[in-house]
Design brief:
single chain; mainly beta; Immunoglobulin-like; 4-stranded antiparallel beta sheet; about 0% helix; rod-shaped; RTP_Phos/Ushers; FN3_dom; FN3_sf; Fibronectin type-III domain-containing protein
């Protein structure tokens, strides 16, 4: 007669490594013209297994997606950005098991800066012995670095110092210079500005007013 034997089976439970959960409190703490400082808190699950973070962003100007792998830290300064541009930025933690859930994208707009280029297509034509008609286009959009809110037009007689130039500030892209001297050469240049300040000035152009009795258009 065989006696039945009760077998005792011991189950060993082992926690399986998982990919990290998403980082929390992801935010921008300092925003400049071309850089943004980001901070976050470590994921609540599997944070001890993090090997690095994956940072993603896109810009609404060039409409391009970007990615950068960064070290196991809780802050990072993202630089090389365009001024006055809206970015969407998100973050994920990665362990040996793989990439975890990403944070929701956060919108960040960089600050404005002075224009990076002068106005373009500047034309100047003498229209009488005492007037010169000017017109121009704004700086290229990709070099504006913000909203153009004013222009400065400088004019001075050729042979005089630039520091003696008369300055006219306006928010239009055309101007008639008047009360000028007859049959006189003037040097003229233009710059654009944002709320931050003046951009670079254009290359000067030289225009001579008419003599009495001349007509020019």
């Amino acid at each position: 007669m065989h006696e039945s034997q009760n077998k005792v089976v011991h189950y060993v439970y082992k926690q399986v490594d998982r990919v990290p959960s998403q980082p929390s409190n992801f935010r921008a703490t300092d925003i400049g013209e071309t850089a943004v400082t980001l901070q976050w808190s470590r994921p609540t699950h599997s944070s001890e297994n993090i090997v690095h973070y994956e940072l993603y962003w896109n810009d609404t100007y060039a409409n391009q997606d970007h990615h950068k792998r960064i070290s196991n830290t809780e802050s990072y300064t993202l630089d090389g950005l365009y001024p006055d541009t809206l970015y969407y930025i998100w973050l994920a933690a990665r362990s040996q098991r793989g990439e975890g859930a990403t944070t929701p994208p956060i919108p960040v707009r960089t600050k404005q800066y002075v224009p990076g280029a002068p106005p373009s297509n500047i034309t100047a034509v003498a229209t009488s012995p005492t007037t010169i008609s000017l017109k121009w286009l704004p700086p290229p959009v990709e070099r504006s670095n913000g909203r153009i809110i004013y222009y400065k037009v400088f004019h001075v007689e050729v042979g005089r110092s630039d520091s003696e130039a008369t300055i006219t500030t306006l928010n239009k892209t055309h101007l008639i210079l008047d009360e000028l001297k007859r049959w006189t050469e003037y040097k003229i240049w233009v710059l654009a500005g944002t709320s931050v300040g003046d951009g670079p000035r254009s290359h000067p152009i030289i225009v001579r007013t008419h003599e009495d009795g001349m007509y020019g258009f």
